[in-house]
Automatic annotation (TrEMBL):
It is found in: Cytoplasm. Its EC number is 7.1.2.2. It is an enzyme of class 7 (translocase). This is Flagellum-specific ATP synthase. Keywords: ATP synthesis, ATP-binding, Bacterial flagellum biogenesis, Bacterial flagellum protein export, Cell projection, Cilium, Cytoplasm, Flagellum, Hydrogen ion transport, Ion transport, Nucleotide-binding, Protein transport, Translocase, Transport. It comes from Kiloniella antarctica. Residues 158-342 form the AAA+ ATPase domain. Its main location: cytoplasm. Belongs to the ATPase alpha/beta chains family.
């Protein structure tokens, strides 16, 4: 099969090369003349530097009869008159199961020192349109993500897309590593977009670990790389997820972070002369976000699915800033990490009262919903009176509901606290939550079929009770 694929690629090569010349360079933007009638938005060119180094570029616009390009690498050595060769075909990759356990860059090249990547049989375009809405399967049953607070209060289904919203230093990366290690899904595709270069190896070795890496493909584009590389890393992450989904695998796609993808899109848009719309973000950013995020989800006529968990780095801890607001409207739920909770040393620092999973309560049984609702009520009651309780202004016995919330608050905080190397599961999570609330719980948690297999006229309240 790899030989057949190689023959197909050779047959697609052109008999001749077409090239133009660099007519201008300003910052990261390159103007190209001579190829403007052959190029379209998204076309690829290879610039030949003075020292014969090759710099891949992409067309992002046209101006005054010249094509505008942004590079995937450094423009050192590029000057007026340098040759630009038109790339032969649309970028694609040839993934295979052997890519699991590997670390690659945004162009699909290995960067882990483990040798070349085995080539799969079929090409996959890096940039794809989302599947048609009418042809998609429904979301599947609940999945075990290994984190108590999410499993119980924010249950996630196969094919669901959730956002993890937090400021810097609140624990996003550690939470992602826990999800990658402890999930019940058998394939992880992890995109580290705009990460600090120093932290990548530490995260791979200490947080993800050998066990997590063995069932993962990790795509890395660090913060020092050009904006096209950071954008391409997000597309590469989704393309690999689609490959495993189309092969019947249930994939956990983790992307850290969507904000840095949006920032790279902003840089690209501003370089092309696009006017800023909201806090410097160009209109194309908000048009591109759903194109990226909608690629996750259930498959079309396949058993596989992509469960997406995307982090959003909120600027200044403002959860209503433009990117956070746009992403929250696209996804199927949001997990809010709060700095005040992290400062009192409770990790993961999830604010359950501000977090939502849109597949709940439909994916739970009735006893599970009652248990979760009871826990939320007690947390809400305590948080409403928290200031008075802390300063000693509340007198015990004034309100039995508040007294009960105070009595159970310590146990609930202990339940929501989970160490980085501590694993939980669905059944154990409900047992521990019931114990924290002082409720008897001796039920077996059934396998919930989820929405995919329900009748079209299903009653949400009865899902999982059959």
């Amino acid at each position: 099969m790899p030989l057949k694929s190689l023959v197909r690629e050779i047959s697609e090569l052109s008999d001749y090369q077409v090239y133009g010349r660099v007519s201008g360079v300003l910052g990261m933007l390159v103007e190209l003349s001579g190829l403007d009638r052959l190029l379209v938005i998204g076309s690829r060119c290879i610039l030949i530097a003075r020292d014969e180094r090759k710099v891949p570029c992409e067309v992002i616009g046209f101006r005054h009869g010249h094509a505008l390009l942004l590079p995937f690498g450094s423009l050192d050595g590029i000057g007026l008159g340098c040759k630009a060769v038109l790339a032969a075909s649309e970028p694609s990759i040839h993934p295979s199961e052997a890519w699991l356990g590997r670390v690659i860059n945004a162009l699909g090249e290995p960067i882990d020192g483990k040798g070349p990547l085995p080539m799969g049989a079929d090409p996959y375009k890096v940039r794809q349109s989302p599947p048609p809405a009418h042809g998609r399967n429904r979301v599947g049953g609940k999945i075990d993500l290994g984190v108590r607070a999410i499993n119980t209060f924010l249950s996630c289904c196969q094919g669901q897309r959730m956002g993890i919203f937090a400021g810097s230093g609140v624990g996003k990366s550690v939470l992602l590593s826990m999800l990658a290690r402890y999930t019940s899904l058998n394939v992880n595709v992890i995109g580290l977009i705009g990460e600090r270069g120093r932290e990548v190896q530490e995260w791979l070795e200490d947080d993800l670990g050998p066990e997590g890496l063995a069932r993962s493909v990790v795509v890395v584009a660090t913060s020092d790389e050009p904006p096209l590389m950071r954008r391409q890393a997000a597309y590469m992450t989704m393309a690999l997820s689609e490959y495993f989904r189309d092969n019947g695998r249930d994939v956990l796609c983790l992307m850290d972070s969507v904000t840095r993808f949006a920032m790279s899109m902003r840089e690209i848009g501003l370089s092309a002369g696009e006017p800023p719309a909201s806090k410097g973000y160009t209109p194309s950013v908000f048009a591109e976000l759903p194109q990226l995020l909608e690629r996750a989800g259930p498959g079309v006529k396949t058993e596989g699915s992509i469960t997406g968990l995307f982090t959003v780095l909120v600027e200044g801890d403002d959860h209503n800033e433009p990117i956070a607001d746009a992403v929250r409207g696209i996804l199927d739920g949001h997990i809010i990490l709060e700095r005040a909770i992290a400062e009192r040393n409770r990790f993961p620092a999830i604010n359950l009262l501000r977090s939502v999973s849109r597949t709940m309560p439909g994916c739970n049984t009735e006893p599970e919903n009652e248990l979760v609702t009871r826990g939320r009520q007690l947390l809400s009651t305590y948080e409403n009176m928290a200031e008075l309780i802390r300063i000693g202004a509340y007198n015990e016995g004034s309100d039995p509901v508040i007294d009960e919330a105070i009595a159970h608050y310590g146990a609930l905080e202990a339940f929501l606290t989970q160490g980085k190397y501590e694993q939980s599961n669905l059944a154990l999570g409900y047992e521990q939550l019931a114990a924290a609330l002082g409720i008897s719980w001796d039920q077996d948690v059934p396998e919930v079929t989820g929405f995919r297999d329900q009748e079209q006229n299903f009653d949400t309240a009865n899902v999982g009770n059959e």
